Amino acid sequence: MLSNERLTMADLDFEIEKRAIDTILVAFSDLQGRLVGRRVTVDYFRTTVLVSGMRLPSYLLATDATGRPARGFDLSSVENGYPDLVLRADPATLFRMPWQPATVGILGDLELPDGTPVSTSPREILRRQAQRIEGSSLLPDIGLEPQFTAFADSHREGLRDGFADLNHAGPVGAGHVAFQSATSEPLLHRVRSEGSQIPVGIEATVGLPSPGHFEVTLRPGNAVAVCDGALVLRAAIKDIAVQEGMCATFMSAYDQDAGTAGHVTVSLRGARGGTALADRHGDGGLSEVGKAFIAGQLEHASELCLLYAPNVNSYRRFSADPFSPSAVNWGTDNRTCAIRVLGAESTLRVENRIPGSDANPYLAVAATVAAGLDGINRQARLPAAVSGDGRHTDALPLPTSLTEALIAWTESAWVRETFGATVQDHYARLARLELDAVGEAGSLDAERSRYFDGC
């Protein structure tokens, strides 16, 4: 099969008849960005899932980082009896799973039994924001750069010890050194070759300056489709690592001195296909739309930090990692700023560097798009760019804790208007669960035990 070739229903039928496929994973994204669902037989898939959907317990969209059903969610609780939701498979999302025998996967959308979309579902949240910006005659191309940390220890060994004191896969600074980075190539080669069959549009893998840290660069595309691919890729990376006798995590700060990110890059096209962010005659090469889009990102950065940095552990990255932002500012090709502008004219794009690797990709992209659109609609004014160290400026600081982010999220009238009261309350409840479980000043070992597999 060619890389990035879409798997169609006709392809699936052909492979089922050849007995090459006997299992279908029917799945969706939970709140944390984990691929969850049920493996079914091909007969059940054809006769039931495709016809009437698949019923799943609503608590799967109301769990904490450990995956346990949690109290306090209106969607699913002991008070309402933990009712079912219906997962409607989307045939356009069929994907191969070469790391699992005789298996393909398909993603779907969650509905209430009466057919109403579940507004708190991450995929539905992104779809609504993508529709809003497309309704303004702007088409976003989204690029993602998921980062993760890999370890030479097996997952079983890590689980036994609470994932403490693991041995990083690769030495310090080995990322771009071909000889040293080859020590992790068995894992990364499988990520590229098998991940490309999702299809997710992988451009490259590369090591980062800190030991065991890696990045996968994805080709830009439609917001929902790119996030679909990223969701599956995250699950694939973890599975492949286990198969290689290793383990991997998307927690944003396994260590005290470095972090991993989940940058979101956006370019906008107008109705005629031309770039909407750039103007060769504008200040810094930015159009008025481009300036307003960035200004919206900055104005809503603190309110949206709960989606960009959803866990207690997320905020270690901001304080420790020199490549992570700490202030609400922007700059041209400046990795120390929250918003980084890259390229010029037709290649100009805006990179949101706030999201961590633990952010749910659907939610991080939805937040980025919503903030930028609001800036455009209000013709928000862009402050001056930062040159030099963006971490030490007089700009407003980003939230330094989950508590600060929770306050900004819950007190925001704009969040309530843009995402809806149900979404605002649902994700506020999720943050409170993490604070109750870990505490604002939780130990790193406790965070490792909770978040290693929890994001």
How would you describe this structure to a colleague?
With 455 residues, the chain is α+β, with helices and mostly antiparallel strands. It folds into two domains: 9-118, Roll (Ubiquitin-like (UB roll)), CATH 3.10.20.70; 129-451, Creatine Kinase, Chain A, domain 2 (2-Layer Sandwich). 35% of the residues lie in helices and 18% in strands. The chain is built from 15 helices and 14 strands. The strands form two sheets. Strands 7, 8, 9, 10, 11, 12, 13 and 14 form an eight-stranded mixed beta sheet that branches. Strands 1, 2, 3, 4, 5 and 6 form a six-stranded mixed beta sheet that branches. A hairpin with a 5-residue loop joins strand 1 (23-29) and strand 2. The chain starts with 8 loop residues before the first helix and ends with a helix. The mean pLDDT is 93.
Residue ranges: pLDDT <50 for 5 or more in a row?
none
Strand content: 15-25%
Shape: globular
Number of strands: 14
**CATH class category of the largest domain:** Alpha Beta
Kindly report the average pLDDT value: 93
Question: Largest sheet, if any?
Answer: 8 strands, mixed
Gyration radius from CA atoms, angstroms: 21 Å
Q: Work out the helicity level.
A: 25-40%
Q: What pattern of helices and strands is seen along the backbone?
A: HEEHEEEEHEHHHEEHEEHHHEEEHHHHH
CATH architecture of the largest domain: 2-Layer Sandwich
End-to-end C-alpha gap: 31 Å
CATH topology of the largest domain: Creatine Kinase, Chain A, domain 2
Q: Quick one: CATH superfamily of the largest domain?
A: Glutamine synthetase/guanido kinase, catalytic domain
Task: Give the number of helices.
Answer: 15
Structural class: alpha+beta
